[in-house]
Amino acid sequence: MSESDANKDLLEALNSVNEVKIGDVVKGEVLAIDDAKQVIVGIEGAGVEGVVPFKELSLKPDQEVSDDVTIGDVIDLVVISRIGSDKEGGSYLLSQRRLEARKIWDDIEKKFEAGETITAPVTQVVKGGLVVDAGVRGFIPASMVDDRFVEDLNQYKNQELELKIIEIEPSENRLILSHKEIVKAAREAKKAETLAKLVVGDVVEGKVARLTNFGAFVDLGGVDGLVHVSEISYERVNKPSDVLKVGETVKVKVLSIDTERDRISLSIKQTLPQPWDNITEKVAEGDVLEGTVKRLTSFGAFVEVFPGVEGLVHISQISHKHIATPNEVLTSSEKIKVKVLNVHADEHRLALSIKALEEKPSAAGEAKKEASSEEKVDLPDESTGFTLGDLVSDLKDEDHQD
C-alpha cells in the first residue's frame, strides 16, 4: 500500500469517529462490571469508553446489576460529563436512568399539550400534599387532592390516581398534578345522572355527608340533598348529631327538587312508620301511661306518650284544685303519669287527665271550693285539633266517672 493510500485510510478512520458531546444520546456496549458495580461500556462510533455508575442504572430497588445488564449488551445512554483529559485518554460519565427519565418527561409533555391525563400511584404523604411516581417524581398539593377538604391525606397512600397535569418543567424536575379536577368532573357527571333519575316521592338510600345545626346533608350519588332537622324524626331532635353520624347510610324520601338552584329536600321520618298508625292497638280509653310534658299553654299541657304522639291534658284535668295556669304545677320536660280519657285516632287526638289519677277531695272541701269560685274552661289560644265542645264533653265524662 502506498503512503498516500495509508494516509487516506487513516483520514477516513478519523472522520468515522463521532465527537461525543454532553447531552448526546449514545449506544454503549457493555465491556465489564467492576467491583463498585459500575458498568464500563464502549461508546459506539466514538472509539472511547464510558462509565455508568450503579445509581445511574435503571434498576428496581431490589435488583442487582447482573439482573439487568450482562457483558455484550448494547444499551442506550445519555452523556452526563467528561472524565479525565484528552492526554489521559479521557472517558465519559453516562446514565441510563436519566435517559429514561428524559423519555418520560417528553411523554408527559406531549400529554400536557394534548390535554390528556396520567395515572400514578401515591408513594408518600408529605407536609402540604402527596408525592406520586409518574416515572418521575410528581407532587399533588393538598388543595388539589379533592374538591372538598380532606382532613387525613394518609387514606391516599398507595392508591393509583388519575391526574391532570397542571405544571411541568423538566429542567427543574418540577411536575405539579391535580386529582381535584378529575374528582370534580366525575362528581358533575354523577350528579347529572342522579338528578335525571330522581323523582319527587322516591325513597332512596344515601350517606350522611355533613351535619349542621339545621339539618343533615345526604349524598345521593354525586349530589347532596338536605334533611331539615324537623324531617329527621317524629321525635323532637335538638341537634342532628344527636341521632345521625357522618358516613351513616340512611333511607330518605325526596320531597322536592330544584334543579336551577341544585337543591333537593329530603325526609328521613317520612320513610318511617307514622306515630299514629295503629294507635288504637297501643292505647285505649282508661289506660294509664307515662309521658313527657312537651308544651305548656294557657289552656293545658301537651304530653308525649309515644314517640311523635302527643295528647292534651286540659287545664281542668291537671288538678282537683283550681289553678290559673298549667305552669303553676307542671314544667316542660317533666315526666308524669296520665289517664287516657278519649282516643280519636282519625283526628290524631288524645284527651288525657292527671287529676283522674289523684284522690278526689272530700265533699265538704269540694262544696267550700264551689262556693268560693266556679271552675273556668278557657278557650284555646292556638289550633290544637280540640274544640270547646270536645273539652267540655271530656270534662263531663270525667265527672261522670268520678
Automatic annotation (TrEMBL):
Keywords: Ribonucleoprotein, Ribosomal protein. It holds the Pfam family S1. Residues 361-379, 393-402 have a biased composition (Basic and acidic residues). Signal peptide: none annotated. Residues 361-402 are annotated as: Disordered. The keyword Ribosomal protein applies. Residues 23-97, 115-180, 201-269, 286-355 form the S1 motif domain. GO terms for molecular function: mRNA binding; structural constituent of ribosome. Binds mRNA; thus facilitating recognition of the initiation point. It is needed to translate mRNA with a short Shine-Dalgarno (SD) purine-rich sequence. Belongs to the bacterial ribosomal protein bS1 family. This is 30S ribosomal protein S1. The lineage of its organism: Bacteria, Bacillati, Bacillota, Bacilli, Lactobacillales.
